[in-house]
Amino acid sequence: MSEPLPDYRDQSPAVAARFAKIKERPVVLEIDRLGRQFPGEHGPVVALHDISFKVHRREFVCVIGPSGCGKSTLIRIIAGLDEPTSGRMLVDGKETSGPCPERGMVFQGYTLFPWLTVKKNVMFGLKMQGMDGGQADREARQWIDLVGLTRFADTYPAQLSGGMKQRTAIARALAANPRVLLMDEPFGALDAQTRAQMQSHLLEIWRNVDVTILFITHDLDEAIFLADRILVLKAHPGEVQEVIEVPVPRPRNLSQLNSPEFLATRRRLEELIHPRVDAHAHEHLPIIRLTQVGDDVE
Amino acid sequence: MSRPRWFSVRQELTPKRSRFLGVLAFMLPLALWSLFSYIPWLWHPMVKVTAPGDVDWMRAGLLINRHDFDKEVATAQLAHTHAPVGFRANPIYFPAPHAVIRSLYTAFTTAPVLKGDLWLHQSLWMSIQTIFWGFTISSVVGIPLGILCGSFIAISRLTEPFVDFVRYMPAPAFGALMVAIFGIQLEPKIAIIVIGTFFQQVLVVANTVRKVDCALIEAAQTLGSKRRQLVLRVIVPASLPDLYNDTRILLGWAWTYLIVAEVVGVSSGISFFINQQAKYRNFDNVYAAIIIIGILGLTIDQILAFVGHRLFPWKNPRPSRIRAFLGKLFGLRPASAEKPVQLLPQ
Ligand SMILES: Nc1ncnc2c1ncn2[C@@H]1O[C@H](COP(=O)(O)OP(=O)(O)O)[C@@H](O)[C@H]1O
Ligand SMILES: [Mg+2]
After folding, report:
1. Together in a domain, B134 and B229
2. Is the ipTM of this complex over 0.95?
3. The whole model's pTM is what?
């Protein structure tokens, strides 16, 4: 047996100092008693109920929760693609609604414009803001360099791998100079290895760019690895269950995946998200034996 | 490895087999046609008289029913008179391939029967003008309207019920009306092509535009696109390849309406030529004219496919056989090898 895990709320002095510093920074995004109901067959379905939280400048916040708890609904409302039925959203202290480039978005399905090359995709937001071609071109190139796609600037999305598509999407969102970058399970469709690379890559980008990130995932390790704070949602109705300050120091690297702080945080997340795991352990599925006699593998 | 099978569900054929079948697609009907044309004991229900004998109502060159001919022969034998002589032939509406192929050339070189009638190439040119203007007028209004319908639900609700209603009225039904309004030149014919094409076009275009992935529109919104930009910078380019293919298909329909339109009022163009030739029982010319329409349609379609490939390098539209053929001729790289779709390393 190894030594018992520390409490996930224990923070080393360095980590505590970092959180103190973050809290001094101005609030970029404030969600205030936000609610969202959908009309359903048997009366309205409450997808989100009374969600409140604040995100400070250059903070990395992950939102985690079981499937169907309203994560996508929340981020779509923040992106302005959906309207809340109650509550407010403030960006830099001003109440806003509707889509706007100050809240950039990266979707799980990449959503690159297939008729545009990587560079033209990245230039899209700049052009929408009325920037002239030459300057948009120069800026786009910088972002493409930053995400490591220099060689593929003139490639069409169909020829890129999933990881490269998502890097293009990140460059495209960042090029529009957002205050907040919203990411809805952006690495959910990638294989494990690419996913790990993309996580490190995203942290690297975030270190070099003045942007605040709100990142949705259902992967516990991903949330701990990336976030300063983790917002744990619960389902039916979607509510904030707990906000966890991740005690893992920065800069992050993959060797921390087995550090005591990491494991302690992970255990807490598991308690919150899969609380009744034991209740299901005794449920037996009706499995019929279909193999031939004599080919036992156990 | 065993040789691949000819028939396996949804499996690609080897290029060689694919080409072979493509050629066979034309050779098979041609072979059937030849069989029935050149093998005298296959079908051939008529007899062409070469010498009438003592039958007074027959003349050399007359084409008569074989049954009647045989009866006369029997009668003549019984009466010990000279029996008529002839060889088995097909009806006049079933010319042999070589006659039609010859007509493909001679149809252009024979002067019209009546003074003032048009030569074949003049008739064709008239048809092409009619279809060009009909289709262009329809598209210039129909495609933008379809795009608006597909983009804005309010416009769709306002126009589509009526468009749907008119769509069910057969275009030729407007013939007499169009002649009354536009006179007897090409205008009423153009109008019928417009009526036949436009209403379909609006609905087809609107449907294609509605298929644009909503996520692309949302992505553009988060990048700062406003209404106008969403239509012009996202919806239009996203649906352009499909719109292009729709247009190719609709152009095929327009050819059908052309033939209908040309017989409205005063007959004109290629239909007039066909009717005129049929009246003089020059059926090989009739076939030649129909085949020319087919060749013309196929050529235009293949040119459009070829251009489409160039227009949308990010997408492969329906592959063009002509392009593959030209590629072989001039050593161009085949379309599929132009932009190899491959996953690049991370
Ligand atoms: N457009 C909609 N209409 C009706 N119900 C919806 C709609 N979008 C989401 N919901 C419901 O809201 C809840 C949260 O959905 P979602 O935000 O997609 O969850 P998550 O992203 O966390 O998996 C689900 O129960 C879903 O059925
Ligand atoms: Mg979701």
Report:
1. yes
2. no
3. 0.84
